[in-house]
Structures are given as structure tokens and as C-alpha cells.
Design brief:
Blueprint: H1 4-10, H2 15-31, H3 34-46, H4 50-68, H5 70-82, H6 88-100, H7 110-121, H8 128-150
Length: 151
């Protein structure tokens, strides 16, 4: 029931350039040849025993999500998977890792960044160390269990 102007004032406009920048990063990685490298790594992982392949792909995806944010990693990984034949379980592992692993760091997902903005507006401060400590405690076992299930 708010007016559009009131809603516009409540929007975190700083997130818009961030999201746009994430898409630019993915396009730049593609132009730099990283997509071909990722496809090669996926094809190599697909030749490993199932459990080893799933763990390697989940770990690589988790690291990438927490370094670069899960949105560009999801876009990039999706493009890489479509360009190479990999077992369905490996595709599912990437999906699970893109969804779960960003909970390891504050910058791992756009949703976390948005929630932090909301929490700070309410006077609740979550430090990076608090987030990582709790994230590791919850995320790592959940990711391992999920990877075991999708194999």
C-alpha cells in the first residue's frame, strides 16, 4: 500500500551495479577462454570414480562461489555443463554446491548480501567471522550429505 516513491526509497540501489557487474564478469571469463578450461576440468572430473568426481566438483564449485559469488558461478557453470557431456549426478552436484556452499562466506550469495543490509538497518550486526564460523559448521556437513545423496 506504499506509493512507488516510498518503495523506491527503500530499495538498496547499490546492489544493482553489483549484479550487473557479475554478468560482466561471466562474459569476460568466457572471452578469456575460461569457459573452455572449465569444460575441460568437468570432462576430466567425469572420468574419475563417481564419489571422487562429485567431491572434486563440489569443492571447486564451493570455492568459486565463495570467491566470486554464486550468481556468476551458477551462470558460468551452467554454460560449462551445457558445453560438455557429464553424468547427470555431476550436473546435480554443481547445482547443489551452487545453492549450499555460498553459506560459507558473507559475499557467497546475493541473498546473503541483501539480508545483511536488512539486518544492519535493524541494528543487527553480523561479523564476517561469525558468519564463516556458523556457516562452516552447518554448510560443510550439509554439502557432503547432499553430494552423497545426488551420486
Amino acid at each position: 500500500r506504499r506509493t512507488p516513491l516510498a518503495v523506491a526509497r527503500g530499495v538498496s540501489w547499490g546492489i544493482i551495479p553489483l549484479v550487473a557487474g557479475l554478468f560482466v564478469v561471466v562474459a569476460a571469463l568466457d572471452r578469456a577462454g575460461a569457459l573452455g578450461d572449465a569444460q575441460h576440468l568437468l570432462a576430466t572430473a567425469a572420468r574419475l570414480p563417481s564419489w571422487s568426481a562429485s567431491l572434486a566438483v563440489a569443492a571447486a564449485t564451493a570455492v568459486a562461489c565463495n570467491l566470486f559469488n554464486n550468481l556468476p558461478v551458477a551462470l558460468f557453470a551452467g554454460a560449462a555443463i551445457h558445453g560438455v557431456a557429464v553424468p547427470t549426478a555431476l550436473s546435480h552436484t554443481v547445482l547443489v554446491a551452487v545453492d549450499l556452499s555460498p553459506n560459507l562466506s558473507l559475499t557467497g550469495s546475493l541473498a546473503t548480501l541483501l539480508w545483511l543490509i536488512v539486518l544492519r538497518r535493524e541494528g543487527i550486526i553480523v561479523t564476517p567471522w561469525q558468519f564463516v564460523r556458523l556457516g562452516a559448521l552447518v554448510t560443510i556437513p550439509a554439502l557432503l550429505l547432499a553430494v552423497a545423496v545426488v551420486r
